[in-house]
Amino acid sequence: MPVIRSTLPHQWNRWSRRDVLQIGALTAFGLSFSDVLRLQRLSCAADPQTRQPAKSCILIWLDGGPSHLETFDLKPNAPREVRGPLESISTSLPGIGISECLLRTATLLNEIAIIRSMTSPLGEHNLGTHYLMTGYKPSSVLEYPTYGGVCAELLNSESALPPNVAVPDFRVGGGNLTGSGFLSAQTRPFSLGADPSKADFQVRDLRISRGLTLDRLNRRRHFTTELDRMRSMANGQGGTADVVDPDLQRAFDLISSSEAQSVFQLNDESPELRSRYGPKSVGQSCLLARRLIEKGVRFVTVNHHGWDTHNDMYTRLKEGYTGARTPVGLIPSLDLALSALIQDLKERRLLDETLIVVMGEFGRTPKLNVNGGRDHWPRVFSVALAGGGIQGGQVIGASDASGESPKDRPVTPSDLAATIYTLLGIDPKLELQTPDGRPVRLTPPEATVVDELIA
């Protein structure tokens, strides 16, 4: 079975026999198949009843496992050891409360959907990360591709930038995940290797050594290609194989691209806008993510480290160990970043075509431990989504009174994967091939789309 590449792979499932006959008639008049698809997309855009898929996705990954009880699913009436140190505040949705540290996000809940009944059996970082980022439980024989890897494989992009980017890095869940899984290395996330919040921020692969020009780089690439071609001939391949190293090609494309050079210049943004996103890494990374999707990048992972809060949770989540009068901990920093990103995309009319997902690998234990923290808890946790044409202003599912188990409408990571792919216009039942020719679906057979999210 060939690998299917299409910006609208789910389209085939919606076409009737009549549609196919109409396409045949149109192509008979000289229109190509791509022309027909383009006309159909224009027709859908003119029809307000037809939902357009999101063009890109920004995943804000809360690495380490965020506490649902301190973010999106507080229990203000529970005992102190369950309730924890943070208060619940009212939001733009009547009767719905979230963390006191999500003050700005609380005013935007009409744009956000919260799933409070996520559930998984995997409470170890690497295993949980694989499940949440791929929709599949880990296998000893096969690593599955992440959402970003699938988007890089299936969604066309005319940008000189990589289709799958990680800011500031892709060191997630212990660092064992490649991102590409069984797909080619070219679908792996391009990791910046640098923090956009730092004054000396510079993307690792865009650095050119002093005295080295693009002409010299081009000559070096030519010599390298010739050496690889001769090595290919010596190995009996006749020099006809594609011998260009994909990482080398990508690095050269980035260095030689004016678009790539300019997109990472955060100083081009106004000081006021940069301040709205907040000074921390997650804020400036979200701002950079917005710039990247504007330039055609399909998937950006904003990796927000530090959420494995086994101890001193109050300080880590709220205050941030700085002694600053304004809290700059993990949650206030996320609040600035998420609220600014939603508002910025909306002001630029990009929110409906950009899916935002906020999640980590699991939640935290219902009861505080003796060190003032919470331990790993995958049985129930929360995920937030915005943009991408979702139905915002709702809470899906619920946990029980102590935040220990799903109370109703349990949603698995496989269900979430099917939903994310659907929102991106990708059929979750689509099959890709492993290197040995084995067909593998994008999501497990039991995966079910969360229909409440589909606007």
UniProtKB/TrEMBL annotation:
Which first-to-last residue range defines the signal peptide?
Answer: none
Family annotation (InterPro entries): Alkaline_phosphatase_core_sf, DUF1501
Spell out the SUPFAM superfamilies in the cross-references: Alkaline phosphatase-like
Q: Which Pfam families match?
A: DUF1501
Entry protein name:
Sulfatase
Task: Identify the species of origin.
Answer: Thalassoglobus neptunius
* Taxonomic lineage: Bacteria, Pseudomonadati, Planctomycetota, Planctomycetia, Planctomycetales
